[in-house]
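Each record in this resource describes a single protein on a pair of labelled lines. With that in mind, the following record should read easily:

===
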Amino acid sequence: MAITKTDFMRGMECPKMLWLDKHKPSLKVIPPEIQTRLDAGNDFGDQAMGMFGPYKETTVYRPGTTIPDKAAMLQRTQEHLEAETPVICEAAFSNYNNYCAVDILPKTDTGYDFYEVKNAPEVYPQFVKDAGFRYYIMARCKMKIGKVYIVIHGPDEENPFVPVDVTAEAKSYYKWINDHIWDLNRIKSLGYDTGERSLAERTLDLGCTGLTLLLVWLLLRWGGASPEIGGASFGALFLVGLSTSPHCLGMCGGILLSACRGREGQKALFGAALAYNGGRAA
């Protein structure tokens, strides 16, 4: 999968965290007190599934793990949508591999409402952004979404589930999410320079640079060609071009990344790259 709700929220807080989650997952540590809160939130969410009576849950785990099988969940969700199941829990949706799962999805006369369950006494701003991300993915999947609710933990433990209507605020985040989700996809898939390079990596970089320069010098010195560029051999010219390629990466690469910013989908990215490189070649 590309970007999930958790990826998006962490990436917007700090892109380096998104890069580290993908490329160095061993560095991610969840403190025990945070894990306790997460577990309590999951328990509260499980209890809330019965808010509207009988329901069907789509959760599927990979064999022998507690890792959700997202492909299987997407398939089960589609089956329940086609069957017009009245209440679907943990319904899964994906657009260009960007993924979300919705806590409670009750069917209405015009489509669906959705409810996000939070084990908290009030609605915090990040909850609305969470809901906005889910609305964004579902809207791009052509789902007809009416109301959006955050279910908080009320004071009455006999009936602790208190829905709060956040429809207008959640839907207003659509453009903001669309403006950033594709940049976060590129950071996660292509990599992000955190500036944290190991000694071995730095040594390898210096060694490759030194070897390239040595080869250029040897070809210019003993390649049977004058050191002037006009008389250099093809091999020497090739290596000179190779050794100066970081300039092209830094300049042309940066311009191309800027041209691709905010564009979504492979066709749009390919079009931007083709237009830029076509003009540069001409």
The chain has a mean pLDDT of 82. The radius of gyration is 26 Å.
